Amino acid sequence: MRAPIVCLLPFALVSAAASSPQISVQTLKSVDKELSSDAYEGRAPTTPAEEKTVAYIIAQMKAAGLKPGNKGSWTQDVPMVESTFANISPMVFVGGSATVSLAPNTDMVVRSYRVLPQIAVKDSEVVFVGYGINAPERGWNDYAGVDVRGKTVIILVNDPDWQTPGRDGLFEGRAMTYYGRWTYKYEEAARQGAAAAIIVHDTEPAAYGWGVVESSNTRPSLELDVPGDHLDQSAAIGWMQLEAAKRVFASVGKDFASLSEAAKVKGFKAVPLGLKASVSMTATIKRQKSKNVIGVLPGKTAPKDFVLYTAHWDHLGRCTPVKGDGICNGAVDNASGIAGLIALAQAHAKAGPAARSVAFLAVTAEESGLLGSQYYAEHPVYPLARTVGGVNMDSLNVRGAVKDFVVTGAGKSELEDLVKPFVAAQNRVIKPEPNPERGGYFRSDHFSFAKLGVPMLDAGSGEDLVQGGVAAGHKAAEDYVTNRYHKPQDEYDASWDWSGAVQDLTVYYGLGRQLAQGKSWPNWYKTSEFRSVRDKQRSGK
Q1: What is the pTM assigned to this prediction?
Q2: Which of 49, 60, 474, 520 is the most buried (most CB within 10 A)?
Protein backbone atom coordinates (compact mmCIF):
# COMPACT_ATOMS: atom_id res chain seq x y z
CA MET A 1 0.00 0.00 0.00
CA ARG A 2 1.16 3.51 -0.71
CA ALA A 3 1.60 5.83 2.23
CA PRO A 4 -1.14 8.43 2.67
CA ILE A 5 -0.42 11.99 1.64
CA VAL A 6 -0.89 14.75 4.15
CA CYS A 7 -1.36 18.48 3.79
CA LEU A 8 -2.41 18.36 0.16
CA LEU A 9 -4.07 21.38 -1.37
CA PRO A 10 -7.65 20.89 -2.53
CA PHE A 11 -8.01 20.65 -6.28
CA ALA A 12 -9.44 24.17 -6.49
CA LEU A 13 -6.32 25.51 -4.84
CA VAL A 14 -4.17 23.34 -7.12
CA SER A 15 -5.76 25.03 -10.10
CA ALA A 16 -5.28 28.45 -8.56
CA ALA A 17 -1.65 27.69 -7.80
CA ALA A 18 -0.99 26.67 -11.39
CA SER A 19 -2.82 29.72 -12.83
CA SER A 20 -1.99 29.12 -16.47
CA PRO A 21 1.76 29.83 -16.58
CA GLN A 22 3.17 31.43 -19.69
CA ILE A 23 5.80 29.00 -20.98
CA SER A 24 7.72 30.81 -23.69
CA VAL A 25 8.25 28.68 -26.79
CA GLN A 26 10.58 31.38 -28.08
CA THR A 27 12.75 30.93 -24.98
CA LEU A 28 12.80 27.17 -25.50
CA LYS A 29 13.88 27.58 -29.10
CA SER A 30 16.47 30.31 -28.58
CA VAL A 31 18.17 28.73 -25.56
CA ASP A 32 18.31 25.28 -27.16
CA LYS A 33 19.57 26.63 -30.48
CA GLU A 34 22.28 28.67 -28.78
CA LEU A 35 23.59 26.05 -26.36
CA SER A 36 23.60 23.28 -28.97
CA SER A 37 25.41 25.31 -31.62
CA ASP A 38 28.94 24.32 -32.62
CA ALA A 39 30.20 27.45 -30.86
CA TYR A 40 29.71 25.60 -27.55
CA GLU A 41 31.65 22.55 -28.80
CA GLY A 42 29.30 20.05 -27.15
CA ARG A 43 29.49 21.64 -23.66
CA ALA A 44 32.04 19.27 -22.13
CA PRO A 45 32.90 20.19 -18.52
CA THR A 46 36.37 21.59 -17.76
CA THR A 47 36.94 22.51 -21.42
CA PRO A 48 37.08 26.11 -22.71
CA ALA A 49 33.42 25.66 -23.75
CA GLU A 50 32.37 25.42 -20.09
CA GLU A 51 33.11 29.06 -19.33
CA LYS A 52 31.00 30.16 -22.28
CA THR A 53 28.17 27.80 -21.32
CA VAL A 54 28.09 28.89 -17.68
CA ALA A 55 28.20 32.59 -18.63
CA TYR A 56 25.24 32.14 -20.99
CA ILE A 57 23.13 30.31 -18.37
CA ILE A 58 23.90 32.97 -15.76
CA ALA A 59 22.86 35.71 -18.20
CA GLN A 60 19.61 33.89 -18.91
CA MET A 61 18.83 33.35 -15.22
CA LYS A 62 19.56 37.00 -14.46
CA ALA A 63 17.34 38.15 -17.33
CA ALA A 64 14.58 35.85 -16.11
CA GLY A 65 14.52 37.67 -12.78
CA LEU A 66 16.38 35.24 -10.51
CA LYS A 67 18.92 36.11 -7.84
CA PRO A 68 22.36 34.51 -7.39
CA GLY A 69 21.72 31.27 -5.54
CA ASN A 70 24.93 30.60 -3.63
CA LYS A 71 25.52 33.31 -1.03
CA GLY A 72 25.71 36.05 -3.66
CA SER A 73 27.35 33.88 -6.32
CA TRP A 74 25.71 32.28 -9.34
CA THR A 75 27.93 29.21 -9.19
CA GLN A 76 29.16 26.38 -6.98
CA ASP A 77 32.64 25.02 -7.63
CA VAL A 78 32.78 21.27 -8.26
CA PRO A 79 36.32 19.86 -7.87
CA MET A 80 37.02 17.49 -10.75
CA VAL A 81 39.87 15.35 -11.94
CA GLU A 82 40.13 14.53 -15.64
CA SER A 83 41.96 11.49 -16.98
CA THR A 84 42.69 11.26 -20.69
CA PHE A 85 43.59 7.69 -21.56
CA ALA A 86 46.05 6.73 -24.29
CA ASN A 87 48.25 3.83 -25.34
CA ILE A 88 45.38 1.45 -24.62
CA SER A 89 46.53 -2.07 -25.31
CA PRO A 90 44.36 -4.83 -26.70
CA MET A 91 42.73 -6.86 -23.94
CA VAL A 92 44.34 -10.26 -24.25
CA PHE A 93 42.97 -13.51 -22.85
CA VAL A 94 45.35 -16.48 -22.65
CA GLY A 95 44.98 -20.05 -21.42
CA GLY A 96 42.36 -21.30 -23.84
CA SER A 97 42.64 -23.20 -27.09
CA ALA A 98 43.75 -19.97 -28.74
CA THR A 99 44.73 -16.51 -27.51
CA VAL A 100 41.86 -14.03 -27.83
CA SER A 101 42.88 -10.40 -28.41
CA LEU A 102 40.18 -7.74 -28.19
CA ALA A 103 40.90 -4.51 -30.05
CA PRO A 104 40.24 -1.18 -28.27
CA ASN A 105 37.03 0.57 -29.41
CA THR A 106 36.16 -2.16 -31.90
CA ASP A 107 35.84 -5.12 -29.52
CA MET A 108 36.06 -3.44 -26.14
CA VAL A 109 36.45 -0.15 -24.31
CA VAL A 110 38.40 0.26 -21.11
CA ARG A 111 39.24 3.05 -18.68
CA SER A 112 39.84 3.52 -14.96
CA TYR A 113 38.40 5.41 -12.00
CA ARG A 114 41.86 5.39 -10.43
CA VAL A 115 43.81 8.63 -10.74
CA LEU A 116 47.16 7.24 -11.84
CA PRO A 117 49.44 7.94 -14.82
CA GLN A 118 49.79 4.24 -15.63
CA ILE A 119 47.26 1.45 -15.27
CA ALA A 120 47.97 -2.22 -15.86
CA VAL A 121 46.19 -5.48 -15.21
CA LYS A 122 48.51 -8.39 -15.94
CA ASP A 123 47.76 -12.12 -16.01
CA SER A 124 44.59 -11.66 -13.94
CA GLU A 125 42.46 -14.78 -13.51
CA VAL A 126 39.07 -14.44 -15.23
CA VAL A 127 35.75 -15.24 -13.54
CA PHE A 128 32.26 -15.01 -14.99
CA VAL A 129 30.07 -13.62 -12.20
CA GLY A 130 26.72 -13.58 -14.00
CA TYR A 131 24.94 -10.30 -13.30
CA GLY A 132 27.50 -9.30 -10.67
CA ILE A 133 24.85 -8.67 -8.02
CA ASN A 134 25.14 -8.96 -4.24
CA ALA A 135 21.67 -8.27 -2.84
CA PRO A 136 21.28 -9.90 0.58
CA GLU A 137 17.76 -8.52 1.05
CA ARG A 138 16.74 -10.49 -2.05
CA GLY A 139 18.74 -13.58 -1.15
CA TRP A 140 21.01 -13.16 -4.18
CA ASN A 141 24.80 -13.13 -4.31
CA ASP A 142 26.66 -13.79 -7.54
CA TYR A 143 29.95 -13.55 -5.63
CA ALA A 144 29.08 -16.23 -3.07
CA GLY A 145 31.80 -18.83 -2.65
CA VAL A 146 34.31 -17.15 -4.93
CA ASP A 147 37.24 -14.86 -4.14
CA VAL A 148 37.72 -12.38 -6.98
CA ARG A 149 40.41 -10.24 -5.35
CA GLY A 150 42.93 -9.30 -8.03
CA LYS A 151 40.88 -11.05 -10.70
CA THR A 152 39.01 -9.93 -13.81
CA VAL A 153 35.25 -10.34 -13.62
CA ILE A 154 33.00 -10.56 -16.68
CA ILE A 155 29.47 -9.31 -15.97
CA LEU A 156 26.12 -9.35 -17.75
CA VAL A 157 24.27 -6.07 -18.27
CA ASN A 158 20.89 -5.31 -16.58
CA ASP A 159 19.47 -7.68 -13.94
CA PRO A 160 18.34 -11.33 -14.05
CA ASP A 161 14.62 -10.94 -14.84
CA TRP A 162 14.81 -8.11 -17.38
CA GLN A 163 12.96 -10.29 -19.91
CA THR A 164 10.02 -10.88 -17.55
CA PRO A 165 6.90 -8.96 -18.70
CA GLY A 166 5.47 -6.48 -16.23
CA ARG A 167 7.02 -5.79 -12.84
CA ASP A 168 6.76 -9.28 -11.35
CA GLY A 169 9.99 -10.90 -10.33
CA LEU A 170 12.74 -10.79 -7.74
CA PHE A 171 14.30 -7.79 -9.51
CA GLU A 172 11.01 -6.13 -10.53
CA GLY A 173 10.73 -7.86 -13.88
CA ARG A 174 11.12 -5.72 -16.97
CA ALA A 175 11.84 -2.64 -14.86
CA MET A 176 15.54 -2.26 -14.14
CA THR A 177 16.59 -1.99 -10.50
CA TYR A 178 19.81 -0.24 -9.48
CA TYR A 179 21.41 -3.69 -9.44
CA GLY A 180 21.11 -3.68 -13.22
CA ARG A 181 22.85 -0.34 -13.69
CA TRP A 182 26.43 -0.41 -14.95
CA THR A 183 27.56 1.95 -12.18
CA TYR A 184 26.39 -0.53 -9.54
CA LYS A 185 28.24 -3.39 -11.24
CA TYR A 186 31.54 -1.51 -11.10
CA GLU A 187 30.87 -0.46 -7.49
CA GLU A 188 30.21 -4.03 -6.39
CA ALA A 189 33.18 -5.44 -8.31
CA ALA A 190 35.40 -2.92 -6.49
CA ARG A 191 33.90 -3.89 -3.14
CA GLN A 192 34.76 -7.49 -3.97
CA GLY A 193 38.36 -6.52 -4.79
CA ALA A 194 38.30 -7.22 -8.54
CA ALA A 195 41.25 -5.89 -10.53
CA ALA A 196 39.12 -5.44 -13.64
CA ALA A 197 35.37 -5.39 -14.27
CA ILE A 198 34.13 -5.86 -17.83
CA ILE A 199 30.43 -5.73 -18.76
CA VAL A 200 29.19 -7.61 -21.82
CA HIS A 201 27.28 -5.26 -24.10
CA ASP A 202 23.97 -6.47 -25.48
CA THR A 203 21.82 -3.79 -27.09
CA GLU A 204 18.39 -4.74 -25.77
CA PRO A 205 19.18 -5.11 -22.05
CA ALA A 206 21.67 -2.24 -22.20
CA ALA A 207 19.02 -0.06 -23.91
CA TYR A 208 21.56 1.54 -26.23
CA GLY A 209 23.89 0.46 -29.00
CA TRP A 210 27.65 0.01 -28.99
CA GLY A 211 28.10 3.51 -30.44
CA VAL A 212 26.82 5.00 -27.19
CA VAL A 213 29.20 2.87 -25.13
CA GLU A 214 32.12 3.80 -27.36
CA SER A 215 31.44 7.54 -27.40
CA SER A 216 30.93 7.63 -23.63
CA ASN A 217 34.08 5.66 -22.81
CA THR A 218 36.64 6.98 -25.27
CA ARG A 219 36.52 10.65 -24.28
CA PRO A 220 38.40 12.10 -21.29
CA SER A 221 37.03 10.65 -18.06
CA LEU A 222 35.84 12.95 -15.28
CA GLU A 223 35.49 12.08 -11.61
CA LEU A 224 35.05 14.09 -8.45
CA ASP A 225 38.45 15.04 -7.04
CA VAL A 226 38.44 13.37 -3.63
CA PRO A 227 41.11 12.25 -1.15
CA GLY A 228 42.51 8.85 -2.01
CA ASP A 229 42.35 9.28 -5.80
CA HIS A 230 39.77 6.48 -6.12
CA LEU A 231 42.39 3.81 -5.46
CA ASP A 232 39.69 1.72 -3.80
CA GLN A 233 38.20 1.10 -7.24
CA SER A 234 39.06 -1.62 -9.75
CA ALA A 235 42.12 -0.82 -11.83
CA ALA A 236 40.27 -1.28 -15.12
CA ILE A 237 36.58 -0.99 -15.95
CA GLY A 238 34.99 -1.37 -19.34
CA TRP A 239 32.71 -3.15 -21.78
CA MET A 240 33.17 -5.83 -24.41
CA GLN A 241 31.05 -6.55 -27.45
CA LEU A 242 28.69 -9.52 -27.25
CA GLU A 243 30.44 -11.33 -30.08
CA ALA A 244 33.79 -10.73 -28.41
CA ALA A 245 32.49 -12.31 -25.20
CA LYS A 246 31.34 -15.34 -27.15
CA ARG A 247 34.86 -15.74 -28.57
CA VAL A 248 36.43 -15.49 -25.11
CA PHE A 249 34.10 -18.15 -23.68
CA ALA A 250 34.46 -20.42 -26.72
CA SER A 251 38.24 -20.42 -26.30
CA VAL A 252 37.75 -22.55 -23.16
CA GLY A 253 34.86 -24.61 -24.52
CA LYS A 254 32.15 -22.64 -22.71
CA ASP A 255 28.89 -21.61 -24.33
CA PHE A 256 28.18 -17.99 -23.47
CA ALA A 257 24.44 -18.26 -24.14
CA SER A 258 24.04 -21.27 -21.83
CA LEU A 259 25.95 -19.65 -18.99
CA SER A 260 23.94 -16.45 -19.43
CA GLU A 261 20.73 -18.43 -19.02
CA ALA A 262 22.10 -20.15 -15.93
CA ALA A 263 22.96 -16.74 -14.45
CA LYS A 264 19.26 -15.80 -14.39
CA VAL A 265 18.47 -18.47 -11.80
CA LYS A 266 18.75 -17.85 -8.06
CA GLY A 267 21.66 -19.80 -6.65
CA PHE A 268 23.90 -19.31 -9.69
CA LYS A 269 27.56 -19.89 -8.85
CA ALA A 270 30.33 -17.83 -10.43
CA VAL A 271 32.37 -19.71 -13.04
CA PRO A 272 36.19 -19.42 -13.17
CA LEU A 273 37.06 -19.59 -16.87
CA GLY A 274 40.63 -20.82 -16.58
CA LEU A 275 41.85 -17.76 -18.49
CA LYS A 276 44.17 -14.92 -17.62
CA ALA A 277 43.57 -11.37 -18.86
CA SER A 278 45.89 -8.45 -19.42
CA VAL A 279 45.30 -4.85 -20.42
CA SER A 280 47.12 -1.57 -19.91
CA MET A 281 46.83 2.14 -20.58
CA THR A 282 48.39 5.47 -19.70
CA ALA A 283 46.58 8.55 -18.43
CA THR A 284 47.21 12.27 -18.55
CA ILE A 285 45.75 13.73 -15.38
CA LYS A 286 44.38 17.24 -14.95
CA ARG A 287 42.82 18.60 -11.75
CA GLN A 288 40.46 21.53 -12.09
CA LYS A 289 37.04 22.83 -11.12
CA SER A 290 33.76 22.70 -12.98
CA LYS A 291 30.67 24.65 -11.95
CA ASN A 292 27.05 24.13 -11.04
CA VAL A 293 24.92 27.20 -11.78
CA ILE A 294 22.30 28.22 -9.18
CA GLY A 295 19.60 30.87 -9.38
CA VAL A 296 16.84 31.45 -6.84
CA LEU A 297 13.51 33.21 -6.50
CA PRO A 298 13.46 33.95 -2.73
CA GLY A 299 10.29 33.09 -0.84
CA LYS A 300 8.13 35.62 0.99
CA THR A 301 7.14 33.91 4.22
CA ALA A 302 9.20 30.67 4.34
CA PRO A 303 12.39 31.63 2.47
CA LYS A 304 14.45 28.89 4.16
CA ASP A 305 12.30 26.18 2.57
CA PHE A 306 13.24 25.37 -1.01
CA VAL A 307 11.54 23.83 -4.03
CA LEU A 308 14.08 22.67 -6.58
CA TYR A 309 14.20 22.40 -10.38
CA THR A 310 17.25 20.70 -11.90
CA ALA A 311 18.70 20.07 -15.36
CA HIS A 312 22.22 19.27 -16.49
CA TRP A 313 24.03 21.68 -18.80
CA ASP A 314 26.82 19.38 -19.98
CA HIS A 315 27.11 17.01 -22.91
CA LEU A 316 29.89 14.93 -24.47
CA GLY A 317 31.91 17.65 -26.18
CA ARG A 318 33.98 16.38 -29.07
CA CYS A 319 33.29 12.76 -29.85
CA THR A 320 33.69 10.06 -32.49
CA PRO A 321 33.00 11.78 -35.84
CA VAL A 322 30.06 10.79 -38.00
CA LYS A 323 30.39 11.91 -41.62
CA GLY A 324 33.04 14.41 -40.62
CA ASP A 325 31.05 15.90 -37.72
CA GLY A 326 32.90 15.38 -34.44
CA ILE A 327 30.87 17.59 -32.10
CA CYS A 328 28.20 15.96 -29.93
CA ASN A 329 25.95 19.01 -29.62
CA GLY A 330 23.37 17.53 -27.24
CA ALA A 331 20.42 19.57 -28.48
CA VAL A 332 17.83 17.29 -26.92
CA ASP A 333 20.20 15.93 -24.26
CA ASN A 334 20.20 18.34 -22.55
CA ALA A 335 20.12 21.80 -24.07
CA SER A 336 16.35 21.24 -24.10
CA GLY A 337 16.32 20.69 -20.33
CA ILE A 338 18.26 23.90 -19.70
CA ALA A 339 15.86 25.71 -22.02
CA GLY A 340 13.02 24.34 -19.90
CA LEU A 341 14.78 25.46 -16.71
CA ILE A 342 15.02 29.04 -18.02
CA ALA A 343 11.42 29.05 -19.28
CA LEU A 344 10.23 27.88 -15.84
CA ALA A 345 12.33 30.54 -14.14
CA GLN A 346 10.65 33.16 -16.31
CA ALA A 347 7.20 31.82 -15.48
CA HIS A 348 7.81 31.72 -11.73
CA ALA A 349 9.40 35.17 -11.71
CA LYS A 350 6.47 36.59 -13.66
CA ALA A 351 4.04 35.10 -11.12
CA GLY A 352 6.03 36.69 -8.31
CA PRO A 353 7.60 35.21 -5.20
CA ALA A 354 5.83 32.27 -3.57
CA ALA A 355 5.80 31.54 0.16
CA ARG A 356 8.80 29.26 -0.17
CA SER A 357 11.93 29.86 -2.22
CA VAL A 358 12.21 28.27 -5.65
CA ALA A 359 15.73 27.30 -6.75
CA PHE A 360 16.92 26.53 -10.27
CA LEU A 361 20.00 24.32 -10.49
CA ALA A 362 21.93 23.70 -13.73
CA VAL A 363 24.41 20.95 -12.88
CA THR A 364 27.62 19.84 -14.50
CA ALA A 365 28.95 16.42 -15.47
CA GLU A 366 25.74 14.41 -15.59
CA GLU A 367 27.14 12.54 -18.58
CA SER A 368 30.19 11.57 -16.51
CA GLY A 369 28.10 9.84 -13.86
CA LEU A 370 25.82 12.46 -12.26
CA LEU A 371 28.86 14.14 -10.73
CA GLY A 372 27.56 17.71 -10.48
CA SER A 373 24.33 16.70 -8.80
CA GLN A 374 26.19 14.24 -6.58
CA TYR A 375 28.51 16.99 -5.42
CA TYR A 376 25.62 19.39 -4.76
CA ALA A 377 23.66 16.74 -2.85
CA GLU A 378 26.71 15.94 -0.73
CA HIS A 379 27.59 19.65 -0.29
CA PRO A 380 24.18 21.34 -0.53
CA VAL A 381 23.85 25.11 -0.74
CA TYR A 382 20.36 24.70 0.74
CA PRO A 383 20.03 22.05 3.48
CA LEU A 384 18.48 18.87 2.14
CA ALA A 385 16.22 18.71 5.20
CA ARG A 386 14.75 22.06 4.11
CA THR A 387 14.48 21.06 0.44
CA VAL A 388 10.83 20.18 -0.08
CA GLY A 389 11.30 18.28 -3.33
CA GLY A 390 11.20 19.15 -6.98
CA VAL A 391 11.49 18.19 -10.62
CA ASN A 392 14.41 17.06 -12.78
CA MET A 393 14.41 17.69 -16.53
CA ASP A 394 16.59 15.60 -18.82
CA SER A 395 15.62 15.84 -22.49
CA LEU A 396 12.29 17.50 -23.30
CA ASN A 397 9.74 16.28 -25.82
CA VAL A 398 10.26 17.99 -29.19
CA ARG A 399 8.01 15.56 -31.09
CA GLY A 400 4.69 17.30 -30.39
CA ALA A 401 1.70 17.15 -28.05
CA VAL A 402 0.90 13.83 -26.40
CA LYS A 403 -2.06 12.20 -24.69
CA ASP A 404 -0.07 10.48 -21.96
CA PHE A 405 2.36 11.16 -19.13
CA VAL A 406 4.96 8.74 -17.79
CA VAL A 407 6.61 8.74 -14.36
CA THR A 408 10.10 7.27 -14.43
CA GLY A 409 10.59 4.69 -11.70
CA ALA A 410 6.95 4.90 -10.66
CA GLY A 411 5.94 3.76 -7.20
CA LYS A 412 8.50 5.67 -5.16
CA SER A 413 7.27 9.05 -3.93
CA GLU A 414 4.15 11.03 -3.03
CA LEU A 415 5.05 13.54 -5.73
CA GLU A 416 3.48 11.04 -8.12
CA ASP A 417 0.08 11.65 -6.54
CA LEU A 418 0.58 15.38 -6.26
CA VAL A 419 1.22 15.62 -9.99
CA LYS A 420 -1.96 13.77 -11.01
CA PRO A 421 -4.36 16.77 -11.01
CA PHE A 422 -2.06 18.76 -13.27
CA VAL A 423 -1.87 15.89 -15.75
CA ALA A 424 -5.64 15.38 -15.61
CA ALA A 425 -6.21 19.10 -16.24
CA GLN A 426 -4.64 18.54 -19.67
CA ASN A 427 -6.86 15.53 -20.36
CA ARG A 428 -3.81 13.30 -20.34
CA VAL A 429 -3.52 9.88 -18.76
CA ILE A 430 -0.66 8.48 -16.72
CA LYS A 431 0.80 5.32 -18.27
CA PRO A 432 3.58 2.90 -17.28
CA GLU A 433 7.06 3.41 -18.68
CA PRO A 434 7.27 1.97 -22.19
CA ASN A 435 10.90 0.87 -21.61
CA PRO A 436 11.42 0.27 -17.88
CA GLU A 437 14.36 -2.01 -18.67
CA ARG A 438 16.39 1.10 -19.54
CA GLY A 439 16.68 2.04 -15.88
CA GLY A 440 15.90 5.68 -16.49
CA TYR A 441 15.40 6.33 -12.79
CA PHE A 442 19.10 5.74 -12.14
CA ARG A 443 20.42 7.62 -15.15
CA SER A 444 19.84 11.27 -14.36
CA ASP A 445 20.38 13.84 -11.64
CA HIS A 446 17.25 13.22 -9.58
CA PHE A 447 18.89 9.99 -8.42
CA SER A 448 21.67 11.91 -6.64
CA PHE A 449 19.02 13.63 -4.52
CA ALA A 450 16.91 10.51 -4.06
CA LYS A 451 19.83 8.57 -2.59
CA LEU A 452 20.17 11.29 0.04
CA GLY A 453 16.46 11.49 0.79
CA VAL A 454 15.01 14.37 -1.26
CA PRO A 455 11.89 13.45 -3.30
CA MET A 456 12.41 14.49 -6.92
CA LEU A 457 10.03 13.82 -9.81
CA ASP A 458 11.40 12.60 -13.12
CA ALA A 459 8.46 12.38 -15.51
CA GLY A 460 7.15 13.65 -18.82
CA SER A 461 5.68 12.86 -22.19
CA GLY A 462 4.88 9.32 -23.15
CA GLU A 463 4.69 8.03 -26.72
CA ASP A 464 1.01 8.56 -27.54
CA LEU A 465 1.26 11.53 -29.91
CA VAL A 466 -1.86 13.57 -30.60
CA GLN A 467 -0.80 13.43 -34.23
CA GLY A 468 0.01 9.82 -35.08
CA GLY A 469 -0.68 7.95 -31.86
CA VAL A 470 1.55 5.44 -30.11
CA ALA A 471 2.97 3.98 -33.32
CA ALA A 472 4.32 7.32 -34.49
CA GLY A 473 5.52 8.27 -31.01
CA HIS A 474 7.33 4.99 -30.49
CA LYS A 475 8.95 5.20 -33.89
CA ALA A 476 10.20 8.72 -33.19
CA ALA A 477 11.53 7.75 -29.76
CA GLU A 478 13.37 4.71 -31.11
CA ASP A 479 14.75 6.74 -34.00
CA TYR A 480 16.25 9.21 -31.53
CA VAL A 481 17.83 6.48 -29.38
CA THR A 482 19.23 4.66 -32.41
CA ASN A 483 20.37 7.55 -34.58
CA ARG A 484 20.96 10.61 -32.40
CA TYR A 485 21.33 9.83 -28.72
CA HIS A 486 24.94 10.58 -27.65
CA LYS A 487 25.92 11.12 -31.27
CA PRO A 488 26.77 14.20 -33.35
CA GLN A 489 23.32 13.95 -34.93
CA ASP A 490 21.66 15.27 -31.75
CA GLU A 491 21.41 18.75 -33.26
CA TYR A 492 18.87 21.56 -33.07
CA ASP A 493 16.08 21.37 -35.67
CA ALA A 494 13.99 24.44 -36.42
CA SER A 495 11.09 22.15 -37.40
CA TRP A 496 10.71 20.68 -33.93
CA ASP A 497 7.25 20.81 -32.38
CA TRP A 498 7.58 22.15 -28.82
CA SER A 499 3.92 21.72 -27.87
CA GLY A 500 4.63 18.53 -25.91
CA ALA A 501 7.44 20.25 -24.01
CA VAL A 502 5.05 23.07 -23.12
CA GLN A 503 2.54 20.51 -21.81
CA ASP A 504 5.16 18.97 -19.54
CA LEU A 505 6.61 22.29 -18.38
CA THR A 506 3.11 23.44 -17.47
CA VAL A 507 2.77 20.35 -15.26
CA TYR A 508 6.20 20.97 -13.69
CA TYR A 509 5.28 24.58 -13.05
CA GLY A 510 1.99 23.64 -11.39
CA LEU A 511 3.60 21.06 -9.13
CA GLY A 512 6.46 23.36 -8.17
CA ARG A 513 4.15 26.30 -7.55
CA GLN A 514 1.88 24.20 -5.37
CA LEU A 515 4.80 23.04 -3.27
CA ALA A 516 6.17 26.57 -3.04
CA GLN A 517 2.83 28.09 -1.99
CA GLY A 518 1.95 25.36 0.48
CA LYS A 519 3.23 23.82 3.69
CA SER A 520 3.29 20.13 2.76
CA TRP A 521 6.39 17.95 2.92
CA PRO A 522 5.86 15.11 0.43
CA ASN A 523 7.69 11.94 1.37
CA TRP A 524 8.67 8.66 -0.22
CA TYR A 525 6.17 5.83 0.00
CA LYS A 526 6.74 3.53 2.95
CA THR A 527 7.91 0.81 0.55
CA SER A 528 10.59 3.03 -1.02
CA GLU A 529 14.26 2.38 -0.37
CA PHE A 530 14.69 6.13 0.25
CA ARG A 531 11.99 6.55 2.92
CA SER A 532 14.17 5.85 5.96
CA VAL A 533 16.82 8.34 4.79
CA ARG A 534 14.22 11.10 4.45
CA ASP A 535 12.55 10.33 7.77
CA LYS A 536 15.87 10.56 9.57
CA GLN A 537 16.79 13.71 7.66
CA ARG A 538 13.53 15.48 8.46
CA SER A 539 13.54 14.40 12.12
CA GLY A 540 16.76 16.33 12.63
CA LYS A 541 15.77 19.45 10.76
Answers
A1: 0.85
A2: 60
